[in-house]
Give the backbone structure.
Amino acid sequence: MLISLAIVVVSVVVTNRLASTLATEEQKKMEIWAEATRQLIMADEQTDLQFYQSIIEQNTTIPVYMTDADDHVLLSRNVKVPRQNREAFYRKKIAALKSSQEPIEVVITPELKQYIYYEDSVVLRELQLFPYIQFAVIFVVMLIVLLAMQIVQRSEQNKVWVGLSKETAHQLGTPISSLNAWLCLLKDKYPEETMIGEMDADVSRLETIAERFSKIGSTPELAPMKVNEVVAETIDYMRHRTSTKVVFSFHSDGDYEVNANRPLLSWVIENLLRNAVDAINGEGQIDVCVSREDDKVMIDVADTGKGIERRAQKDIFQPGYTTKKRGWGLGLSLSKRIIENYHDGRLTLKSSQPGVGSTFRIMLHSC
């Protein structure tokens, strides 16, 4: 970027110097052109007109206007004059030129004077525009390079997260299989023990978590499913593993179906519920609402927690952002990716107010 800026600065300086030199040359040419015009007007029958005519005809690039003392245009050269409203066109041109330059005075007699105005040639105008065109091209190229760098960086990050997720799923597989074997032995030895059922549910949950991690990076299979069932199951799971001071409520204005991957959708809802539990510090109200607008099904997760400050709201979905002392800051980032990349939906912070609470919204396409 510094090199590009240096190129633009050097181009502007050099071009302005060349343009200034060319403008001086054009002014000298116009003074010679004015003198040739004066000589041509004052010539008699014995004067050789060919030399003066050749000077006048050699000007093929600089627009020139010759006027009388009352600013009436007597002649013009290298000017595209409209077929209609010529007088208005000339008045506007001469008024603009008078405000920006001193005319070249052509003295025919002491009582008769004419004036020559001229505009920059096409070459001079293009030369003046060149550094700005160059700046625009460099800016576009730099923008493309930055976008390409972001895409490459994001791709590399995706590969890291996918590899980490699959390795985590692989590492979880062996202890989960061992736990399942021990559970089978416990069930045979203590068939009446109710706590074994809870242990079995937790091991099943570990299997689900491992399955979720194994699916990251691959295209998940979507299937029609009842939203209310997924939400109710997830809330029930969280209710049995959360303090009794946390009150969960769930209501829906209908029984809706969406195309989704059940383990991944359940994980996103569970992650939002866990964040809500953390936000209320283990005591408060968490409300989950399912509704529909047009062809979209909304799942709103609201809490009565500490809320999120306005300046932090734009960063909550960024990888690494967390307010927890032992948090990794990946939950909301992965949740957003699951909903938006895999389900073609949206995960947003619907509202948040410090000291009042927050509401997150999942938006999915209905079947």
Notes: DSSP finds nine helices and eleven strands in the chain. The mean pLDDT is 87.
